[in-house]
Amino acid sequence: MPPRVVLVGLPGSGKSSVGAELAHRLGTAFADTDALVEAQTGRSVGEIFAQQGEPVFRQLEAELIAEALGNFDGVLALGGGAVTTESVRLDLAASGVPVVLLSAPPPELLARMAGTGHRPLLAGDAAARLDELAAAREPLYREVATWTVETGGRGIEAVTADLSDRLTARQP
Fold this sequence. Notes:
Helix content: 55-70%
Number of strands: 5
CATH class: Alpha Beta
Shape: globular
CATH topology: Rossmann fold
Radius of gyration: 15 Å
Distance between the termini: 16 Å
């Protein structure tokens, strides 16, 4: 059975925190693709980037996403850059699963990520890198998204309630 919903968005947009709370509210499982990659490889995302590079990480990520789209029944949060892989975008489109883009202003994203650990793609000037990622990824997020939910200035509970209501309304 495919996931009930897939969450996409930039780092710090709330995919993991909102995803976990939404899964709890829906009484279903939650999975984060970064955690799935780490569990499969026994290494952190940062270690994979440092030792093997982003292309190897993206390939592992794409394989796990394809598998999850076919047999994971729950809320699936994709890593922020997953949509940069064409096969992931094609798999999302073919799955028929609702894809929700979580969005927030870059300054809020940076504030949320402060102290959360190493993020390889934000090394150096994090604000400038986040702006670059946003410019590159925004069209790809829009391409795959069924709808967008603004998380800026909103708590996890409010965003989760909004998503839960929308998903419930979609049920036949």
